[in-house]
UniProtKB/TrEMBL annotation:
Domain of life per record: Bacteria
Gene3D superfamilies named among the record's database cross-references: FAD/NAD(P)-binding domain
Species annotation: Thiocapsa rosea
Annotated keywords: FAD, Flavoprotein, Monooxygenase, Oxidoreductase
Subunit structure: Component of the Ubi complex metabolon, which regroups five ubiquinone biosynthesis proteins (UbiE, UbiF, UbiG, UbiH and UbiI) and two accessory factors (UbiK and the lipid-binding protein UbiJ).
Cofactor(s) recorded in Swiss-Prot or TrEMBL: FAD
GO cellular component, one term: ubiquinone biosynthesis complex
Gene Ontology BP annotations: ubiquinone biosynthetic process
Listed name of the protein: 2-octaprenyl-6-methoxyphenol hydroxylase /2-octaprenyl-3-methyl-6-methoxy-1,4-benzoquinol hydroxylase
Family, as annotated: Belongs to the UbiH/COQ6 family.
The keyword Flavoprotein is assigned to this record: yes
This protein's pathway: Cofactor biosynthesis; ubiquinone biosynthesis
PANTHER family the record matches: 2-OCTAPRENYL-6-METHOXYPHENOL HYDROXYLASE, UBIQUINONE BIOSYNTHESIS MONOOXYGENASE COQ6, MITOCHONDRIAL
Annotated FAD-binding domain residues: 4-321
Length: 412
């Protein structure tokens, strides 16, 4: 039996960030990750990117990985929000929140490499990869796990099990937890385009009758496209020639960036809302997509997961310094207090936006356009909205303030 204080299932961006945050806290940590680091290190034109809020940047700074991400992260200095075919629009900028940027667009490849590099330098973190969870059993004071690591079958034991294993979480399935699971009957078509008049630092969120169309600024004058379409339209968009797709996108978005000149390969992902009713169980905590999978509108999914990391890391570090039980009722109650509001409220907000802006009912259309125009004209309202989407409102844990955790001496 291999003994640990904490076992994290999933060593991706969320699970890896938690391990980085807790490195140096005097804990024995195991990270179980199924997918080896990619051998492909060269960036591609259409590489996957992630929209990071300002609050997420502070978390990544506090855990020590932001310096490796920053050179390839494009700042978002303004967000232009509009309702296609109608007069409603609003603009959010860093002045509304008193920061240098509302957020950043960073390649997932770069973020993953920064986290893996930090883990490799952490003597108290053991990365088991490729490895997968077979089963787990909760006892009064421990969690016992069976893990397949290469050809070997390992038995692990820990005071706390953290599931960061994505939207199809094996831990969630094994616990048979109740979830709110709703399909949007929409897909997100993802690609990269190059316009002839890029506007550095300006992101666009355009609401259309099929869902939001987001264009996120990338380095090199490129834009990442997240095009929400009805499920029956997806195959057509994927099958179009590059020229025909660019023409369709141009008609959908307009000419705020000039003409679109180049497009990368397209991929489609079905959209759904999955919200675990109680992601905190005896000696088990679900974080990130294992706890909540959101509609991509407003780019809140990964940022919500990093806020899970910040709160859980603080609770675990405090318990370690006090010599308390990491997976005991007191620690889990503290974490539930941090996250019990933010997770469901962010899920409700993204769900509301996804549904309200595709509803063609005339009174509702007038109301949402009036709301956007009013928001554009009232700085205090813009400030509150900017803070909400930047993840800097309310009571914040240390990492979300950009402050590293207080480290504990190694435990006896």
């Amino acid at each position: 039996m291999h003994e640990y204080d904490l076992v994290i299932i999933g060593g991706g961006l969320v699970g890896g960030s938690l391990a980085c945050a807790l490195s140096g806290c005097g804990l024995r940590i195991a990270v179980v990750e199924a997918v080896p680091a990619s051998a492909e290190h060269q960036p591609s034109y259409d590489e996957r990117v992630i929209a990071l809020s300002w609050g997420s940047r502070r978390i990544l700074e506090a855990i020590g990985v932001w310096p490796d991400i920053a050179p390839e992260a494009e700042p978002i200095r303004q967000v232009h929000v509009s309702d296609r075919g109608h007069c409603g629009f609003t603009r959010l900028g860093p002045d509304d929140a008193g920061v240098e940027a509302l957020g950043y667009v960073a390649p997932a490849r770069v973020m993953g490499a920064a986290i893996r590099s930090a883990l490799a330098l952490s003597p108290d973190v053991e990365l088991l990869c490729p490895a997968r969870l077979l089963e787990h059993r909760v006892t009064a004071d421990r969690v016992e796990l069976g893990v397949q690591h290469g050809e070997a079958r390992l038995r692990l034991s820990a005071a706390l099990l953290v599931a960061a294993d994505g939207g199809d979480s094996a831990v969630r399935r094994q616990l048979d937890l109740e979830t709110r699971d709703e399909r949007y009957e929409q897909d997100a078509v993802i690609t990269t385009v190059s316009p002839d008049r890029p506007r550095n630092g300006v992101a666009f969120e355009r609401f259309t009758d099929t869902g939001p169309l987001a264009l996120l600024p990338m380095t090199g004058g490129r834009y990442s496209v997240v095009w929400t379409c009805r499920g029956e339209e997806t195959s057509t968009l994927l099958a179009l020639s590059d020229e025909a797709f660019l023409a369709r996108l141009q008609a959908r978005f307009g000419y705020r960036l000039g003409r679109f000149l180049q497009v990368g390969p397209r991929r489609a992902y079905p959209l759904k809302l999955v919200l675990t009713r109680n992601p905190v169980q005896p000696r088990v905590v679900l974080i990130g997509n294992a706890a909540h999978t959101l509609h991509p509108v407003a780019g809140q999914g990964f940022n919500l997961g990093l806020r899970d990391v910040a709160a859980l890391a603080e609770v675990i570090a405090q318990s370690a310094r006090a010599g308390a039980d990491l997976g005991g009722p007191a620690a889990l109650s503290d974490y539930r207090g941090w996250r019990g509001s933010d997770q469901p409220s962010t899920a409700r907000l993204t769900d509301l936006l996804a549904r309200v802006f595709v509803n063609p009912w005339t009174p509702l259309r007038f109301a949402r356009n009036a709301a956007m125009l009013g928001l554009d004209l009232i700085p205090p309202a813009r400030h509150r909205v900017a803070q909400r989407f930047m993840g800097v409102g309310g009571r914040l844990p240390r990492l979300a303030c950009g402050v590293p955790l207080e480290k504990a001496d190694a435990r006896n």
